[in-house]
Design brief:
With about 190 residues, this protein is α+β, with helices and mostly antiparallel strands. It has one domain (about 5-180). The chain is built from 5 helices and 7 strands, in the order ααββαβββαββα. The protein has a 7-stranded mixed beta sheet, sandwiched between helices. β6 and β7 (about 150-155) form a beta hairpin. The radius of gyration is 16 Å and the shape is globular. About 35% of the residues are buried.
């Protein structure tokens, strides 16, 4: 497959939809291959991109870095834009409603724009915290943000402690990452 062409088609789709392309580390973005009409991945998935339980289990097993991005769904009201990213100490799984017949397109677009902005900040903050020694080797911040499942975040070393912050999940996870960058030694 031609990965350059695949990435260009991904960018073109997001441009056509007038949506920002969520932040993906460049080394993963360049490895994306088309896996379906509206989906791209850096790996051959064993499960569907929307299988959150499988994605969380992978993140806890310290799976290798990967990215999945695209649009999926069925019917007239079950479509989402999704991003699954595992990159070093960050595992982020996002699903935002998009393309649903009953949704206000401008409102949905603004929500995705906000989510994309937070994801950019979150990717950068986790990288900074890791470089500063604020995230222990093997630790991973797991962030789940979705319109079809409870939004929450946790440190992989604390599997029984989910922080359920709803629409503020990305902001709270960003705060946790920034705290680790400012205070080396790992999550409290």
């Amino acid at each position: 497959m031609d990965q350059v062409k695949d990435v260009e088609e991904l960018r073109e789709l997001f441009t056509t939809e007038k949506l920002p392309l969520p932040a993906l580390p460049s080394q993963l973005l360049q490895k994306l291959e088309r896996t379906g009409p509206h989906s791209w991945s850096t790996q051959a998935a064993q499960t569907a991109p929307g299988d959150l339980a499988a994605r969380i289990a992978e993140a806890r097993r310290n799976v290798a870095d990967y990215a999945e991005i695209g649009f999926s769904g069925h019917g007239i009201n079950s479509w989402v834009m999704y991003v699954n990213l595992v990159h070093g100490p960050l595992a982020m799984f996002l699903q935002c409603r998009w393309g649903n017949v009953y949704d206000d397109v401008q409102r949905a677009r603004r929500r995705i724009e906000g989510v994309a902005g937070f994801t950019t900040s979150l990717v950068e903050a986790v990288a900074k915290a890791s470089q500063a020694g604020g995230i222990a080797t093997g630790e991973r911040l797991i962030v789940c943000f979705g319109d079809h499942y409870p939004s929450r975040w946790q440190w992989a070393s604390l599997p029984d402690k989910w922080n359920e912050d709803g629409d503020f999940t990305l902001l709270a996870a960003l705060g946790a990452a920034q705290e680790c960058a400012a205070r080396p030694g790992g999550p409290a």
